[in-house]
């Protein structure tokens, strides 16, 4: 089965107040260089290990490469080139592979973008979060809305024809009018793809501390639900298809890489905290960057844990994230047990509650179900 490759770049210019990703503040250039060398070494030594196996996992052709972070756009072009070369030397990368880089506003120049295009990066995904400068400060994003606008223009000028950006709804103090203004500006910019999230406040982040101390008040659930509804209506009217709970695309521009996660196709992850799924097992690397580098330098490997996953139940709740849902016959063929039989009572309950429906052989979330998706997924764990 054609697979994807994920590469994690754990460096950022500063730390956003809501972020709980595995990322460090970029301080010393030498640290990045050492990390990039470790990442390339991990890819090559995984390949050497696989070469000795009769049933190599790496025989799959690669259809997608995703440089995520952190802030991969902080890398120097030569560093990105070294990483992509390591991937191409290891895997059979399809000539029309989707190659995405996550970028932050104010971290790219026309020269850097031209170099990235040259080495095959053909999709950009960048974090706007909000076009409101007051809210950007609250999130400690380290850039303003004009930086996001000029990054978008720079990407277009550099020839990027597949651009996605992220927005977050439900920020403390955000009103419905603020959210509307964000959506209008996003639609006017005409990206090919948009990812829209509702703010999650993670324990241990500065934002969680601000909420605990009363300096920030989270918005209420009803307003968050209305924001979600407005976003679906506005983007659908503007010609975007909501193909996943948080993702919208113009026809043909769905993220091929992220779709692999939702359809349980193999994705090989490299770098600190990177997760992999090889069709049977899920495994992940160490979460600490310094430890990751030490471990790769010493042994060429930084695996932290490995688990065989319950494919049948994961296939349901990952597949349900997609709007088309889970094709019942195909999934029964792939995973053996008849899903409807195994989860008959849960499915009946959720259909009666108006959260699930079956349409043309697909089991899928209703519009209401998309809003309460976590409650639905809990029933399949
Ligand atoms: C993998 S992240 C990182 C991308 C990039 N480093 C950036 O921040 O611009 C992708 C997206 O997840 C979303 N995100 C991250 N933390 C979030 C949170 N606590 N609540 C909601 N969305 C979040 C943001 O929209 C972010 O752009
Ligand atoms: S730029 Fe992205 S990964 Fe980096 S701190 Fe901010 S949210 Fe986290």
Explain this structure to me?
The protein has 381 residues and is α/β, with parallel strands linked by helices. The protein has 2 domains: 3-262, TIM Barrel (Alpha-Beta Barrel), CATH 3.20.20.70; 324-378, no CATH class. Helix content is 43%, strand content 23%. It has helices spanning 29-51, 77-90, 110-118, 133-138, 145-157, 176-189, 206-212, 221-237, 256-262, 289-299, 311-319, 328-335, 339-342, 344-352, 367-371, 373-378, and strands spanning 3-9, 11-12, 24-25, 61-69, 92-103, 123-129, 163-169, 193-198, 241-244, 247-249, 267-270, 275-277, 281-285, 303-308, 326-327, 356-359, 362-365. Strands 9-10-8-7-6-5-4-1-11 form a 9-stranded mixed sheet, with helices on both faces. It has a 3-stranded antiparallel sheet with strand order 12-13-14, with no helix packed on it. Strands 15-17-16 form a 3-stranded antiparallel sheet. Helix 6 links the parallel strand 7 (163-169) and strand 8 (193-198). Helix 1 packs across helix 10 (289-299) and helix 6 (176-189) packs parallel to helix 8 (221-237). The protein is globular.
Can you give keywords for this protein?
381 residues, alpha/beta, TIM Barrel, 2 domains, nine-stranded mixed β-sheet, three-stranded antiparallel β-sheet, binds S-adenosylmethionine, binds iron/sulfur cluster
Within CATH, the superfamily of the largest domain carries the name Aldolase class I
The helix tally amounts to 16
- Give the second-level CATH assignment, the architecture of the largest domain: Alpha-Beta Barrel
The unreliable regions are none
Total number of strands: 17
Strand order of the largest sheet: 9-10-8-7-6-5-4-1-11
CATH top level of the largest domain?
A: Alpha Beta
Each distinct ligand: S-adenosylmethionine, iron/sulfur cluster
**End-to-end C-alpha gap:** 26 Å
> What would you call the structural class?
alpha/beta
Report the principal-axis shape. globular
> Beta-strand level of the residues, as a percent range?
15-25%
Tell me the number of structural domains: 2
Approximate helicity band: 40-55%
- Over the alpha carbons, how many angstroms does the gyration radius reach? 21 Å
């Amino acid at each position: 089965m054609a697979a994807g490759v994920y590469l994690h770049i754990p460096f950022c210019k500063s730390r956003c107040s809501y972020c709980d990703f595995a990322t460090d503040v970029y301080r010393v250039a030498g640290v990045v260089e050492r990390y990039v060398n470790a990442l390339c070494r991990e890819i090559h030594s995984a390949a050497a290990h696989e070469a000795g196996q009769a049933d190599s996992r790496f025989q799959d052709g690669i259809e997608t490469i995703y440089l995520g972070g952190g802030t991969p756009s902080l890398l120097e072009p030569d560093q990105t080139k070294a990483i992509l070369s390591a991937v191409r030397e290891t895997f059979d990368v399809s000539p029309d592979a989707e190659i995405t880089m996550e970028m932050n506003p104010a971290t790219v120049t026309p020269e850097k973008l031209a170099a990235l295009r040259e080495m095959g990066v053909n999709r950009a995904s960048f974090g706007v979060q909000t076009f409101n400068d007051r809210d950007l400060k609250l999130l400690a994003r380290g850039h303003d809305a004009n930086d996001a606008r000029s990054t978008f223009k720079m990407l277009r000028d550099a020839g990027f024809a597949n651009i996605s950006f992220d927005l977050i709804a439900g920020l403390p103090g955000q009103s419905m009018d603020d959210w509307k203004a964000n959506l209008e500006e996003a639609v006017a910019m005409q990206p090919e793809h948009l990812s829209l999230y509702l703010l999650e406040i993670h324990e241990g982040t500065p934002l969680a501390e601000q909420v605990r101390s009363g300096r920030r008040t989270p918005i209420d659930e009803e307003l968050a639900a209305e924001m979600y509804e407005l976003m679906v209506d506005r983007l659908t009217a503007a010609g975007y298809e909501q193909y996943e709970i948080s993702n919208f695309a113009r026809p043909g521009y769905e993220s091929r890489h992220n779709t692999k996660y939702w359809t349980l196709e193999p994705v090989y992850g490299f770098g600190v905290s990177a997760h992999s799924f090889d069709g049977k097992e899920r495994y992940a690397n160490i979460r600490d960057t310094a430890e990751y580098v030490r471990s790769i330098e010493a042994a060429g490997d930084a695996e932290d844990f490995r688990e065989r996953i319950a494919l049948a139940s994961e296939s349901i709740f990952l597949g349900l994230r997609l709007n088309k849902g889970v094709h019942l016959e195909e999934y029964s063929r792939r995973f053996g047990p008849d899903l409807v039989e195994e989860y008959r009572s849960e499915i009946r309950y959720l259909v009666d509650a108006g959260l699930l429906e079956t349409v043309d052989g697909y089991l899928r979330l209703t519009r209401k179900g998309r809003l309460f998706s976590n409650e639905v997924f809990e029933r399949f764990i």
